[in-house]
Amino acid sequence: MTNQQQSILNEYPLPISKLYLKVQNSSDKREMNKSLLTLFEFVLKYIALVSLKEFQECKSNDYKVSEAIDRLDEPKGLGVGNWANLLEQCHQINLLNNKTILPIEYFETRSTYPFINKFCQIINRWDGKQNITSFSLHNFVDKAVILRNKASHPDLSIEMLSEVTGDFKLALEEFLYHMEWMKNYPLVFNEKREVANEEWVLSIIKLMGNESIKLLSLNIPLEQDIPSSVLLILDPNNKPYLRLDPILLLKKKTNVYLFNGHKGNTYSEYVCYDTPDRYDLPPDFRTRRKACILHHKKGLKWKNKQRNAEKHTIKNSRSMQFG
């Protein structure tokens, strides 16, 4: 195992390390491909969630992002393609605002991505598209979404899927190598908090590598609202960077659950990607989740104002036309 592969196992967020270990322990290509697709899906949603939270911290307004966030409240939640679109829209705006820990070269095509370029060329060949030699990290996400959708299609033979598995593994590893920010911005869980000397004292559990590690207490100002039992990301100086609740939750000490949509009109469903577990939350959580995540009222107001202005212009033009 290379140093970079060891790094994913030992230095990346716990759920990613656990899923990557399943990839490494796969008994055959079919099992490996399934594990790779699961790992990719979680990585995509984790990165998209970080980008969304950064977007909200910037207090930016964008109707495309607002529409993507709205889909979180639909019964089925966001599909994998929708998550990729959410990441694209948020990251573009975060780059303009110079507020992101994600790679600034995310949209740049480069010849220095040998495995990503080869994988993307294979997917292009499947779709009968022209042969392009250089791709971006963004292109890899799009092509991996295509593979994920094709994997469940009856027209895709096991032979074709096996053919791409090795290249997909190398490309996904290369993609993760370029997400090194994950090592410096650890995923942690605030087990509890209490007030001491006019500060919050947080009891933090670090969820990195293949284990959870109890850390020393973390002191933060009282104006920083970090409640108990939430997941968050710390910056390199061990200061809170982003809260990830209520889309990402921790249960059973090491099982990270990601919001998967609504179960009818009654429950919010969460999925743990490294176990077959589903976790349901009662109806009142839906309101609290919405209050935490959908901080885009200004964007919606802006969008509605724009639409009303367009309608007003059309109405006036018709009045002038028909007297």
Topology record:
Blueprint: H1 3-11, H2 14-24, H3 29-57, H4 63-70, H5 80-96, H6 114-126, H7 137-151, H8 158-177, H9 181-184, E1 187-196, E2 199-208, E3 211-214, E4 218-221, E5 230-234, E6 240-243, E7 248-251, E8 255-263, E9 267-272, E10 278-281, H10 283-293, H11 297-322
Antiparallel strand pairs: 1-2, 1-5, 2-3, 2-4, 5-6, 7-8, 8-9, 9-10
Helix pairs in contact: 1-2, 2-3, 3-5, 3-7, 3-8, 4-5, 5-7, 6-7, 6-8, 7-8
Strand content: 15-25%
Percent helix, as a range, is 40-55%
Structural class: alpha+beta
Net shape: globular
The radius of gyration is 22 Å
Low-confidence stretches: 283-323
Largest sheet at a glance?
A: 6 strands, antiparallel
Walkthrough of the structure:
The protein is of the alpha+beta class. The chain folds into two domains: 181 residues; 109 residues, no CATH class. The protein has eleven helices and ten strands. Strands 1, 2, 3, 4, 5 and 6 form a six-stranded antiparallel β-sheet that branches. The protein has a four-stranded antiparallel β-sheet with strand order 7-8-9-10. α3 packs across α8. The radius of gyration is 22 Å and the shape is globular. 34% of the residues are buried. The C terminus is likely disordered.
